[in-house]
Amino acid sequence: MKQKFHxxxxxxxxEKLQEQGFDLNxxxxxxxxxxxxxxxxxxxxxxxxxxxxxxxxxxADEATVYALASAAxxxxxxxxxxxxxxxxQAEDVLKQxxxxxxxxxxxx
Length: 108
Known about the structure:
By secondary structure, the protein is of the alpha+beta class. The chain is built from two helices and six strands; from the N terminus they run H-E-E-E-E-E-E-H.
Protein backbone atom coordinates (compact mmCIF):
# COMPACT_ATOMS: atom_id res chain seq x y z
CA MET A 1 0.00 0.00 0.00
CA LYS A 2 1.52 3.31 -1.08
CA GLN A 3 0.83 6.71 0.40
CA LYS A 4 -2.12 8.41 -1.24
CA PHE A 5 -1.00 11.95 -0.45
CA HIS A 6 2.17 13.81 0.27
CA UNK A 7 1.60 17.09 2.00
CA UNK A 8 3.91 20.03 1.30
CA UNK A 9 4.75 20.79 4.93
CA UNK A 10 4.73 19.16 8.36
CA UNK A 11 2.01 21.61 9.41
CA UNK A 12 -0.22 20.68 6.48
CA UNK A 13 0.30 16.96 7.15
CA UNK A 14 -0.65 17.28 10.82
CA GLU A 15 -3.71 19.42 10.01
CA LYS A 16 -4.97 16.95 7.39
CA LEU A 17 -4.37 13.97 9.69
CA GLN A 18 -6.27 15.71 12.49
CA GLU A 19 -9.19 16.15 10.07
CA GLN A 20 -9.05 12.37 9.55
CA GLY A 21 -9.44 11.71 13.29
CA PHE A 22 -5.79 11.49 14.37
CA ASP A 23 -6.53 13.73 17.32
CA LEU A 24 -3.90 12.74 19.89
CA ASN A 25 -0.55 14.56 19.78
CA UNK A 26 1.96 11.94 20.85
CA UNK A 27 5.41 12.24 22.28
CA UNK A 28 7.58 9.15 22.56
CA UNK A 29 9.13 8.50 25.94
CA UNK A 30 10.92 5.20 26.27
CA UNK A 31 8.50 2.53 25.09
CA UNK A 32 5.35 4.60 25.63
CA UNK A 33 3.45 7.11 23.55
CA UNK A 34 2.21 9.96 25.73
CA UNK A 35 -0.68 12.32 25.06
CA UNK A 36 -3.00 14.31 27.31
CA UNK A 37 -1.39 13.00 30.53
CA UNK A 38 -1.98 9.40 29.38
CA UNK A 39 0.68 6.83 28.51
CA UNK A 40 0.03 4.12 25.93
CA UNK A 41 2.29 1.13 25.26
CA UNK A 42 3.92 1.83 21.89
CA UNK A 43 3.69 -1.82 20.88
CA UNK A 44 -0.12 -1.45 20.83
CA UNK A 45 0.16 0.93 17.85
CA UNK A 46 0.81 0.60 14.15
CA UNK A 47 1.94 3.19 11.66
CA UNK A 48 -1.02 3.92 9.40
CA UNK A 49 0.96 6.35 7.29
CA UNK A 50 4.13 8.38 7.46
CA UNK A 51 5.53 11.44 5.77
CA UNK A 52 9.21 12.36 5.62
CA UNK A 53 10.50 15.87 5.15
CA UNK A 54 14.08 16.79 4.37
CA UNK A 55 15.53 20.21 4.98
CA UNK A 56 16.48 21.76 1.67
CA UNK A 57 19.40 23.73 3.06
CA UNK A 58 19.74 22.40 6.60
CA UNK A 59 19.72 18.69 7.52
CA ALA A 60 18.54 19.73 11.00
CA ASP A 61 15.18 20.61 9.39
CA GLU A 62 14.44 16.93 8.73
CA ALA A 63 11.25 15.56 10.27
CA THR A 64 8.97 12.54 10.06
CA VAL A 65 5.23 12.71 10.71
CA TYR A 66 3.68 9.42 11.84
CA ALA A 67 -0.06 8.67 11.77
CA LEU A 68 -0.51 6.01 14.47
CA ALA A 69 -3.51 3.89 15.45
CA SER A 70 -4.17 1.17 18.00
CA ALA A 71 -6.56 -1.76 17.81
CA ALA A 72 -8.42 -0.13 20.74
CA UNK A 73 -9.22 2.87 18.54
CA UNK A 74 -6.77 5.52 19.71
CA UNK A 75 -5.40 7.57 16.80
CA UNK A 76 -2.73 10.20 16.93
CA UNK A 77 0.25 11.91 15.41
CA UNK A 78 3.92 11.66 16.35
CA UNK A 79 6.39 14.11 14.84
CA UNK A 80 10.07 13.33 15.20
CA UNK A 81 12.92 15.52 14.16
CA UNK A 82 16.54 15.10 13.26
CA UNK A 83 18.63 13.48 15.96
CA UNK A 84 15.69 11.82 17.71
CA UNK A 85 17.96 8.90 18.54
CA UNK A 86 19.10 10.62 21.75
CA UNK A 87 16.89 8.13 23.60
CA UNK A 88 18.07 4.64 22.61
CA GLN A 89 14.89 2.95 23.86
CA ALA A 90 12.68 5.35 21.90
CA GLU A 91 14.82 4.75 18.81
CA ASP A 92 14.28 0.97 19.20
CA VAL A 93 10.51 1.51 19.51
CA LEU A 94 10.49 3.53 16.27
CA LYS A 95 12.47 0.78 14.54
CA GLN A 96 9.89 -1.80 15.65
CA UNK A 97 7.00 0.37 14.45
CA UNK A 98 8.77 0.80 11.09
CA UNK A 99 9.34 -2.96 10.86
CA UNK A 100 5.62 -3.70 11.44
CA UNK A 101 4.68 -1.04 8.87
CA UNK A 102 7.05 -2.48 6.26
CA UNK A 103 5.81 -6.05 6.84
CA UNK A 104 2.16 -4.98 6.58
CA UNK A 105 2.81 -3.07 3.35
CA UNK A 106 5.04 -5.68 1.71
CA UNK A 107 8.12 -3.48 1.79
CA UNK A 108 11.63 -4.77 2.26
